[in-house]
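Thread: quick sanity check before group meeting

JM: Hey all, I'm pulling together slides for Thursday and realized we never actually wrote out the predicted structure for the chain we discussed last week. Dropping the sequence here so it's in one place. If anyone has concerns about the input, flag it before I start.
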Amino acid sequence: MQNFIQLGVSQPLQHALKKNGIAVPTPIQEQAIPHILAGRDVLAQAQTGTGKTISFILPILDQINIDQGYIQALIVSPTRELAIQITNEFQKYKSEEINVLAVYGGQDVERQLKRLAGNVHIVVGTPGRILDHLRRETIELQNVSMLVLDEADQMLHIGFINEVETIISETSSTRQTMLFSATLTDQVKKVSQKYLRNPVSVKIAEEHKTLDEIKQLVYETTDRQKQASLCQIIDEHRPFLAVIFCRTKRRADKLYENLKGLGYNCDVLHGDLSQPKRERVMDRFREADIQYLIATDVAARGLDVEGVTHVFNYDLPEDVDSYIHRIGRTGRAGSKGLAITFVTPKDFSQLKIIEKGIGLTLPKRTLVKEVQHTEKTGRNDNQERVTNQKKSNPGSSKKTRSNQKETRSGRKSKSIMGTRVSKKGNSRSTTKSNHK
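JM (edit): ok, ran it. Output follows.
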């Protein structure tokens, strides 16, 4: 295993890495960084959570000429959330002399225009907003020497192929191009063949093989009982932080209102929210002010939050790739994670397709309900656990808060649904009382 200095990374960046707690490169970093530093085009197949962002950030920072006040590197991202995440990563490692600008929809255009009028070395943006600036003639890309297409499969799947090709055509023909993608779809292959010159191929193991730290379970339920099943499992497992995925924005909003009404500390994230609202929600989730984030698949790309212990597929994802990216929100950086998927009878055929795609048969469980009478204590066990974990793990939240709102346990005692989990093919069962 090589260290970053052996890969060719400069000493100042090595110090910045150590300051951020990174000492050993991941496989994607070990394979990609030397080629990028050598100026080669790179076609990298790697999933989120493998450290791929740092694999292109470090070589770009090492090659920026601070004496040249034009855009030298352009990173194109499919979503605003991912653009923000990449920009934040640049901020962690760059020197004060290097200027990085994020451009994406929902942001103040005038502010972007002022920044673009100054010395900007690196731009991170979404295809739509970059194209908007090109039409306004407020951004110049002809001097871009390093181009990154991140999450290329998702970007092309969304339908950004025309925008991406227009953006590429505005850059220098002698540029270095790096394409990162979780899957090599036909569209991705066509783009790479058209725009990459003799690229070095870097492939990291298929994601289902790299998700060994994530335990995956399936709970069989019905549409009518799905919300109750979710609540029962949440009450049993008491996640520190969890992402709950819904198929549509409408279903996400409905589940949010219902869980909020039941006292759960939650919020919702999807494409219909304004950008300031989305940023506030993500900031609160990163700080563990929100315990349960209810989201559509828009949030699956670029959502990188330390401390996510659980992912719930409230609705079964549409395809294998979406499933992989969803559950990849937990079990990151070698930590343990749990992914729970709810399936109804109509989902069984789609579940088989997903299982075939990941090469696994997921354990199936059912919930057996029984009524218990539980005295509420005036403070939520989950909330107390969040506060305690913040104290013991400062990295998961920069500060604790004494004024956190009471959640479910703030209500008076009432009868709640207990849980007994039974595994198919196993007559043994455990009651919820055993977990208390």
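AS: nice. Residues 370-436 have pLDDT under 50 and may be disordered. The first strand starts at residue 42 and ends at 45.
JM: adding both to the slides.
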